[in-house]
Each structure stands twice: as C-alpha cells, then as structure tokens.
Amino acid sequence: MLQRPLLSPGPETTDDIPGAFHPLKPWLLSHLGKGRETYPAHPWTDELESAILAWAADLGLSKEHIKITAEATPGHLVGLFAPQAPWNVLLPLAKLQMILFWLNTVDLGADQPVGHLMEPVRETLERGHSPSGGPDILRPIASLRDDIIAAGGAGLIPGFTELLLGFLHEYTFRQAWESGEPLPSLDRYLQHRTRTAGIVLGMWVQRLQPGLTGPGEQLPAPLLQLMKQGSLLVGLDNDLHSCHVAAESGERLSLIGVICQEYGIPVDMAFSCALTLNAAMRYENANTVASICADTSLPDTARRHARTIFHWVDSVYTWSLETPRYGLRSTDAHELVTRSCPAGE
C-alpha cells in the first residue's frame, strides 16, 4: 500500500525558490562544479556575435528580438561547445541557438499557443520558404535551413524537422503548466526537459562538422541515446542555475518545484535532491561515453562523435556561469579547472 509523504506539499514548500536559492548559491555552485572543467572563449566569438546581430537585423525582426539577440551571446555559446567546427558550421549553430532563445522568450510568452507554429514550421522546413504573413520566427528558420543545406546537410533536414516539432509540442504542455494546470510528475518533467533543453537539435546540426557521423550516414543508436542524456543534463544544470530568475519572473514550472510537489518537501531540501539527481545523471552519461568508446564494433567516427557530444555538457555549463542573465559569477563559488584543449580531439 502506498504511504503518504512525511510532508504535504503546499504553498510554503514551493513559493520562495529565490529566497532559498540566494543563501544556498555558494554551496550549490561548489557541488555542481565538482569534477567539471570550464573552457576558454573561441577566438571567433566576437565575429559570431556580430554576424548573428547583423542577421537578425537583416531579417527585419522586431526590436524585442534584436534586444534579446544582443543579450543572449549565442556566438560565445556555440564557440564553447563546437570549438573544432568550421565557420560554415558554427554560424548555423549560432542561428539555431538564437531561434531557441527567441522561442523561449518572445513566442512562449505570446498570447497564442505555441502549437499554432507547428504546421507553419513544418511547411517552412519542408518547402524551404516561410508562408506569407506567417509568424516572424519562420524567417530565421528558413534562413537556418538554407545554411544547413549549403553546408551539405540536406539529409539532416527531415530529422531536424521532427526534432523541432517535438520541441514545440512539448512547449504546448509548458504553456498549460504555466497557465495554472497541475505541475507534471517528476518522470514526466524529465521527459519534457530532455526535449525542451534543445540540445539534441544542436547536436543534430553539429553533424555537419567534419569527422563526425555525417548527414549521409546512419546515426548509431548509442549516439542518439547519448545526445538525449546530454540534453537532459544540460536542462538539469540550467534548472539549478536559473530557477531563481525564472521564479522571480513569475514562472511556475521548474525542477525544484516539481521535486517539492513529488515528495512533499521544502525548497532547500529539494535543492539537495536535485543535486543528487544531477550527479547520478552525470555518472550515467560518463559511463555511456566510456561504453561507446570501448565498443570496437562501432567506427572510429562514432567514438570520436561520442567524445564530441560529451563535451557539450560542461561547455554549456561554462556559458551558464558566465552569462549575465543568471548572475552566477561569485568569489564564493568553487573555482573550476579551465582546460585549453577541447574534448574529442
């Protein structure tokens, strides 16, 4: 027989995430940083940031889009997670990150449900041009499609389309949860976070990079599983880094809030649970990489690709520490080791 939790979830357990986060911040960052490496900025970071700003302006996007672009530093982000990629791979990766930033801010916050984007997005990616009079986000998506094809990635478009539609589909649930629907179970939230972190989309486009499992090759199932693990880990890291900012802006959905609801515990205890979950996922992720690299039935490109995928988690972690949006840089935080050579070499 199922027993009731020792504590009953209520407003007092979930309403003050920022209040719990700030005094816990040094302790939280210290434990999140154990065993991690941070990475230096890519030498093309400034050029990438300028190119993305010019691209957004050339597309005629709104002032809100341009403001978000200036603050988001997508060029720094992609330079960290794809340090060996050539320019014609880095630029579409930066465009994709910017599209995801816009979706997460402008479109998720719009009055219309995100679901209304799904068919126009599908049409844009399948036909190569955005429907006339469609939402602004379709123009950058069409531009990204052109870049992927120009880089030899036409074979990536069908899979990319399904991944982006899956991302948007999950956002329809997020809008419902943010609008007052009961928060999901922890299992459902982890499934949701794997898809909405957007990392598999980036890893899919990174297949344009020479030396990886390319657009014309079948992606081995262990690599797809590794991509999903990495996406969830990035999502969990992001939740722990940004939950205070999200809560202060009025968002209901977060890993911390879901854990409070699932187990009927207060916020400070939920942070401990979230750290334990994060550590377990990192252990599993490292073991998956080791297993792939030890599998002699896989080609060398697959093993190299596994190390490249594994590099993403700490690279995005580095960006999260440095971006002003989360305010995490602190002299109280545990200092991480900076590694000059990228993984997957």
TrEMBL record:
List, alphabetically, the InterPro entries matched.
Isoprenoid_synthase_dom_sf
Q: Say which domain of life the source belongs to.
A: Bacteria
Q: Which organism is this protein's natural source?
A: Streptomyces kanamyceticus
- Supply the Gene3D superfamilies for this chain: Farnesyl Diphosphate Synthase (1.10.600.10)
Q: Name one Pfam family in it.
A: Terpene_syn_C_2
Origin organism lineage: Bacteria, Bacillati, Actinomycetota, Actinomycetes, Kitasatosporales
Official protein name in the record: Terpene synthase
